[in-house]
Amino acid sequence: METPFGFVVIDKPVGLTSHDCVNRLRKVFGIKKIGHSGTLDPSVTGVLPIAIGNATRLITYLRGSKVYEGIIQLGRVTNTDDFQGEIIESKFWPSISENEIDSLLEKFRGTILQKPPIFSSVHIKGERAYKKARKGEKFNLDPKKVTINKLNLIRWSQVEGELTVHVDCSTGTYIRSLARDIGETIGCGGCLKKLRRTKAYNFTEKHSILLPERAEFYPEINRPKVLDPNIFFKHMSSFQLISEEEIISWCSGRKVCFKNNIKRLKLAKKNKDEDSFIHSKSILILDQKNIIIGVGDLDENYKIKPKVVFNAIG
């Protein structure tokens, strides 16, 4: 039986970790080579792209922003920067208008420095921050540069102290940190109450399906559809191999020379609406049927050096 190759996009339910979803799909497909493209906290729902088979080796080449819709609770500070954490401080939030809030949000638009939550997966001398935090250890996390492409106020409830926001941001942005810092700026503290991801890289809600409920092996006919990976790598240039000889040479780890076949190199076009960029160096290698059979790096001698090689799909 041929191993599937591509992506399944899960609409992650609340209460499960990203790894729980991966484990479920491993049982559904009956294979171990499955991995997700970025963790969602158990309390967060929404778009979770999961690579199937050899597509796990393409995860590092995904590009694009991530989009969220969330509720920030003012007046509540927790040790995890979200609603599930231990309450450290409670305050009354001020009487404030939507226009005033929108002006305050301007501080967080564009490229900013952001300190990750102490309960996060950031590495500190080989250990995850959340593990150190659980042990009660004291430590500092350095702020990191992130980009907030859009930060729009959807709704403000003065009675509940809740801000509903739409966020389009770069990979590595913590919405919990954003909630914490917005609360600090308003002067009453805050934390993330609820969050849903609606887009990750080039994966959107329209691609997503519910996580299969049954954990046991599915008959093949009932498995989730595996999406063609090509549609999620439009930001990368590509080169098509058109003969068996070229494919055998590529799969043997040899460079591809395109000096006399420059028309076969299809350059990607930059999407102005994304924070992604064209991979000027990394090139998708396709077979005669436009199936991805690897990734190579361009060099100065009109050659593509193999970086990732799929000898056979599966």
List strands and helices in order, with pairings.
Layout: E1 6-12, H1 18-29, E2 34-36, E3 45-52, E4 66-74, E5 76-78, E6 87-90, H2 98-105, E7 110-114, E8 123-124, E9 127-128, H3 129-134, E10 144-157, E11 162-169, H4 175-186, E12 190-200, E13 203-204, E14 208-210, E15 236-240, H5 244-251, E16 256-257, E17 265-266, E18 279-286, E19 292-298, E20 303-309
Parallel strand pairs: 1-14, 3-12, 15-18
Antiparallel strand pairs: 1-3, 2-3, 4-11, 4-12, 5-6, 7-10, 8-9, 10-11, 12-13, 15-17, 16-20, 18-19, 19-20
Quick take:
By secondary structure, this protein is an alpha+beta fold. It has helices at 18-29, 98-105, 129-134, 175-186, 244-251, and strands at 6-12, 34-36, 45-52, 66-74, 76-78, 87-90, 110-114, 123-124, 127-128, 144-157, 162-169, 190-200, 203-204, 208-210, 236-240, 256-257, 265-266, 279-286, 292-298, 303-309. It has 3 domains: 1-64 and 201-229, 2-Layer Sandwich (Pseudouridine synthase), CATH 3.30.2350.10; 69-189, Pseudouridine synthase, CATH 3.30.2350.10; 234-314, Archaeosine Trna-guanine Transglycosylase, Chain: A, domain 4 (Roll), CATH 2.30.130.
Q: Biggest sheet, in brief?
A: 10 strands, mixed
Give, in order, the helices and strands: EHEEEEEHEEEHEEHEEEEHEEEEE
Q: Span from first to last CA? A: 9 Å
Q: Remind me, CATH topology of the largest domain?
A: Pseudouridine synthase
Global Rg: 22 Å
Total beta-strand segments: 20
pLDDT averaged residue by residue: 89
Alpha plus pi helix count: 5
CATH architecture of the largest domain: 2-Layer Sandwich
- Note the overall shape: elongated
The CATH superfamily of the largest domain appears as Pseudouridine synthase
- Total number of distinct structural domains: 3
Give unreliable regions as ranges: 273-279
Counting helices, strands and paired strands, the structural category is alpha+beta
Strand content: 35-45%
